[in-house]
């Protein structure tokens, strides 16, 4: 009875909704509207993330876009919680084991790096394999080894992945002192330090790379060579590895064999229209040698592949001898040099001549035997494309003579010399008009050169602060006419005269080509001076 009496005493406003119904109400809930806007924003953010992600294959991105448009926030939550839970689990499990504090800290750092670069990178983005197709994790007893070994393998794959993302042509791992190693990438021809690493961790990384390259891990003083490949969502990339013992530790050099080399043509490597015409006229001839000249890293092989892409491989039998094979050409027979199996440039060329070739490509002329066989093949109805290390066209002739090639054979077989250099291209996002001195403006004015389109680098995030992004080439082409061939054959062309006048002429041509690139805003004056001198 007391309860019923209490209820009767309570005012009606407290037991009915009339008190609330009298207040002003909104036609929508602000909280629900905010949640809806946030949900839509996260959905579009996830779609954008998937668009630029290399984890998801291109043929599956359409389905991923549809899923992200409806479940974007849930996908973001999964990406945040799953790596974090993995890190916590690994750290707790590692703490339960009897290890030192240093190992625990290194394991935690390695796990955080794995989260930073993406979950399961070694399973989704990149896989390292040796020449026989065995994965690094199988070679390095992945799964049976300790947790620290797992982190080292992940770190190794991250280094290779970063090099591919930054378009590096070389990866250098060498010691700075007894306690520190430096990892550097060569991008657009110049070295850039990426990371510093303690000696113990870096030595483990070096061992993992040597293991996948079929090199002896226990040998740290004798120079070794090896190779491995990387499988990514964009294709397969090959790597060539060389190790050497130094005073403060072992040094490792990794050459990235560009997967885009075979995609170049004569139109997109920097040749002018006149130069392309000269090269094509030499290539349509049934015989003769086209010789590419230049120092190491000047892009000779890329130009060589550009020439091969001009040839109809269905109508002409093309056979190449390379060390190593950088790009697989469909419908062409490619032979890789292997000294251990007694496959050299000379022995391979002798066997090629018995296989009815129309076009022979020689990766590099290194000795008298290779030069002699190639030049004789150029005389007997074969088109020969070859490269040689030299500073200019004139130096290439002198080197062939120094190798012991007879002047008559050289005059009859050689038809075209192409010397080239690579220069860095200005970044279009940050290049600014060049600040020229009064003397430079006066010189350009006297030569009737428009200097208003000359730019200089500034640096931004897209070019990593260098001011340059990508490279192109400048060329000096020398066609051997009848008069020059007659002078070479009769030994009337003195070597000293050829070296002085030929080098001077070649240097002048390279400088003119470089100046054209400068006044059109492609590169800077400082870059051409660095490349040409």
Explained architecture:
The protein has 533 residues and is an alpha/beta fold. It folds into 3 domains: 38-96, no CATH class; 118-257, 2-Layer Sandwich (Beta-Lactamase), CATH 3.30.450.90; 261-532, P-loop containing nucleotide triphosphate hydrolases (Rossmann fold), CATH 3.40.50.300. Helix content is 44%, strand content 22%. It contains 19 helices and 16 strands. The strands form 3 sheets. It has a 7-stranded antiparallel β-sheet. A 7-stranded mixed β-sheet has the order 10-9-11-12-8-13-16, with helices on both faces. Strands 14-15 form a two-stranded antiparallel ribbon. Helix 13 links the parallel strand 11 and strand 12 (383-389). Helix 12 (345-352) packs parallel to helix 13 and helix 13 (368-379) crosses helix 15 (407-413). The model is unreliable at 1-8, 10-23 and 95-124 (pLDDT under 50).
């Amino acid at each position: 009875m007391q309860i019923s009496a209490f209820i009767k005493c309570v005012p009606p406003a407290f037991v009915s909704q009339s008190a609330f119904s009298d207040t002003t109400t909104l036609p929508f809930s602000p909280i629900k509207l905010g949640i809806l806007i946030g949900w839509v924003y996260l959905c579009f953010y996830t779609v954008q993330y998937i668009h630029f992600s290399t984890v998801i294959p291109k043929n599956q991105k359409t389905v991923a876009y549809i899923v992200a448009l409806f479940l974007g926030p849930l996908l973001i939550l999964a990406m945040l919680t799953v790596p974090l839970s993995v890190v916590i689990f690994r750290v707790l499990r590692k703490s339960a084991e009897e290890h030192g504090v240093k190992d625990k800290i290194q394991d935690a750092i390695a796990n955080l790096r794995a989260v930073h670069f993406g979950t399961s990178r070694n399973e989704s983005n990149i896989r390292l394999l040796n020449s026989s197709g065995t994965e690094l994790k199988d070679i390095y007893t992945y799964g049976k080894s300790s947790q620290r070994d797992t982190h080292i393998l992940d770190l190794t794959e991250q280094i290779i992945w970063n090099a591919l993302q930054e378009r590096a042509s070389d990866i250098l791992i060498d010691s700075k002192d007894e306690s520190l190693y430096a990892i550097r990438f060569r991008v657009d021809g110049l070295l850039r330090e990426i990371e510093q690493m303690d000696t113990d961790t870096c030595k483990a990384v070096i061992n993992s790379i040597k293991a996948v390259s079929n090199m002896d891990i226990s040998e740290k003083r004798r120079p070794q060579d090896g190779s491995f490949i990387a499988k990514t969502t964009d294709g397969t990339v090959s790597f060539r590895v060389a190790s050497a013992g130094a005073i403060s530790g072992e040094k490792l050099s990794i050459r990235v064999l560009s997967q885009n080399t075979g995609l170049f043509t004569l139109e997109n490597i920097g040749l002018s229209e006149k130069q392309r015409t000269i090269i094509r006229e030499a290539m349509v001839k049934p015989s003769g040698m086209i010789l590419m000249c230049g120092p190491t890293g000047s892009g000779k092989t890329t130009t060589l592949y550009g020439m091969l892409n001009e040839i109809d491989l269905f109508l002409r039998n093309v056979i190449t001898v390379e060390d190593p094979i950088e790009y697989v050409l469909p419908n062409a027979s490619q032979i890789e040099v292997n000294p251990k199996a007694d496959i050299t440039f000379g022995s391979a060329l002798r066997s090629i001549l018995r296989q009815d070739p129309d076009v022979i490509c020689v990766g590099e002329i290194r000795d008298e035997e290779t030069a002699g066989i190639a030049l004789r093949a150029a005389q007997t109805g074969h088109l020969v494309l070859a490269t040689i290390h030299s500073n200019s066209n004139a130096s290439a002739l002198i080197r062939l003579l120094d190798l012991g090639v007879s002047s008559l054979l050289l005059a009859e077989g050689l038809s075209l010399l192409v010397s080239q250099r690579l220069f860095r291209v200005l970044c279009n996002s940050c290049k600014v008009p060049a600040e020229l001195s009064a003397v430079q403006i006066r010189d350009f004015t006297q030569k009737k050169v428009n200097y208003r389109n000359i730019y200089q680098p500034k640096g931004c995030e897209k070019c990593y602060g260098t001011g340059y992004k990508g490279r192109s080439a400048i060329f000096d082409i020398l066609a051997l006419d009848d008069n020059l061939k007659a002078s070479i054959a009769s030994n009337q062309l003195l070597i000293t005269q050829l070296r002085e006048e030929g080098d001077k002429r070649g240097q002048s041509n390279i400088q003119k080509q470089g100046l054209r690139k400068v006044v059109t805003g492609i590169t800077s004056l400082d870059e051409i001076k660095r490349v040409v001198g």
